[in-house]
Structures are given as C-alpha cells and as structure tokens.
Task: structure prediction
Amino acid sequence: MEIDRRKKNPHRAKLTIDMIHVLICVAIIVLAVFGFADPRENMKLFSAVFVLASALNFMNGILRLRQRNGRKKPIVSGIFLCILGIFLLGLAILSAVVFW
Result:
C-alpha cells in the first residue's frame, strides 16, 4: 500500500497557523514595548502595531468563515473579526497620517 504524500495534513495547517499567530503576537509586543519606551521617537511603530493586529484579526475571521461546517455562529464571529480588522486598519492609516 502506497502512501500519498500530496494530501494536505490538517495538523500541519493548524501548526502553521499557530506559528503565524505566535510570530505576529511577539512582533506586536516588541513593537509596543519599543513604542512606549520612547513615544516621541518611536511614534511610527504604533501604525505597525495596528497593521499587525488588523492582519491577525483578518486571518482569524477568514479561518472562522472557512471552518464553519454549516453552523451560523462561526459566520457571525468571522464577520465580526473581519469588521474589527477593517477598523484596526483604519486606525493604522489614521495613525500613519497623524504621526508622519
């Protein structure tokens, strides 16, 4: 019996998504620490924090919408996360305009 290695492994996909979450969260924490350490010098970092938070919310919202399995609750939470991502992206643009 031959093993088909081309099939997608759902555990590998979940591990990849978890690693992306960890990397984005660590980046947000590092940028926030540097941003609050010297706010006048590092004002531009706040825009990057908002962009990363927006990307994280979009990613979570799209994952919820794709993994709904016919239920309505993940649809509502997925749409809410995407709307929150749009709001955070708007804050990123606003902070970029104000600080630059």
